[in-house]
Amino acid sequence: MEANNYLLPVSRLWQHKYTCFIVAVQSGQASSVHRSVYSFGRLLSTLRNMQKQNTKKSENAGPAGLRRLSLAATAFTREQLIHAHAPQAAFAGRSNVGKSSLLNALAGTKKLARVSSDPGKTRSINYYRIVSAEAFVIDLPGYGYAKCSKEERQRWADLLDYYLRHSPGLKALMLLSDARLPPQKSDLDLLAFAAALALPALPVLTKTDKCNKKELQATFDAWTALTGHAPLATSAEKCLGLDELWSILLDLLMPHSI
Questions:
Q1: Residue 182: which CATH number?
Q2: Which pLDDT score, from 0 to 100, does residue 166 have?
Q3: Are 116 and 200 in contact (CB under 8 A)?
Q4: Distance of CA 26 to the CA centre of its chain
Q5: Cα–Cα distance for residue pair 68/63, rounded to 1 Å
Q6: 20 assigned to some structural domain
Q7: In a domain, 55, yes or no
């Protein structure tokens, strides 16, 4: 399926103020989403098998310096985008999904990404460099709730679309989703767009500490039925799933470092 088929849907994720514009799910979307997460499913299976064998890959995901992040650049325009060919993994999700909190938890600090009670504060593409390496974790603006003008939302949409299409170093998309909610149509549109670009995408559940076991299992089952693979469960507040997420990032971006 051509990537252009999803140009309009993925752009509109960042255009609407309080609720995402939802397009009709195309007939081939489910299979596209499955293809998008397939390579990640194999990677997750490998990591979890190694954990069962009592290896320390998750706990020691590379040298300590490789598990630190620092802000390298902030881009508001195409001209400010940098390091197009450097290995990078992008984090995307709805504005209130807890993306900034998860990035701070990964970095082991509360000062890396700005956290606010007002959703949509990330209004640029932020490049976080893995310390002592030429690889990046990318923070994309959240979609769905930001209070801003129609013109600014259009600028976001254009910038995000350009970044996703013209970053040859982009290895994967981490799609963050609130563990208390089932897969949203806006998330499915973004997964399908990633699949059309042949970009692997990994569903990452956030705020797992804020739902009970039954709710979490229902969300797990929904994502597994959709993609064929269980999502990665995380909690920034409880530091859950961070070791495994670091292992995945380093395996993608710096496969010879671990």
A1: 3.40.50.300
A2: 94
A3: no
A4: 22
A5: 10
A6: yes
A7: yes
Q: What are the mean pLDDT values of the chain's consecutive 10-residue runs (258 residues total)?
A: 41 40 35 53 55 44 67 93 94 90 88 59 83 90 68 78 94 94 88 88 94 93 87 94 93 78
159 within some domain: yes
Residue 75, domain extent: 3-253
Q: What is the Cα–Cα distance from 13 to 31, expressed in whole angstroms? A: 21
Partners of residue 71 on adjacent β-strands: 128
Q: Which two tokens stand for residue 135?
A: 């690889």
Counted domains in the chain = 1
Single pTM value for the model: 0.78
Rounded to whole angstroms, the Cα distance separating 111 from 243 reads 20
Provide the token pair at 13: 């994720």
Cα–Cα distance measured from residue 141 to residue 91, given in angstroms and rounded to the nearest whole number:
9
Q: So what's the pLDDT on residue 62?
A: 47
Residue 258 is assigned to a structural domain of this protein? no
* Cα–Cα distance for residue pair 256/258, rounded to 1 Å: 6
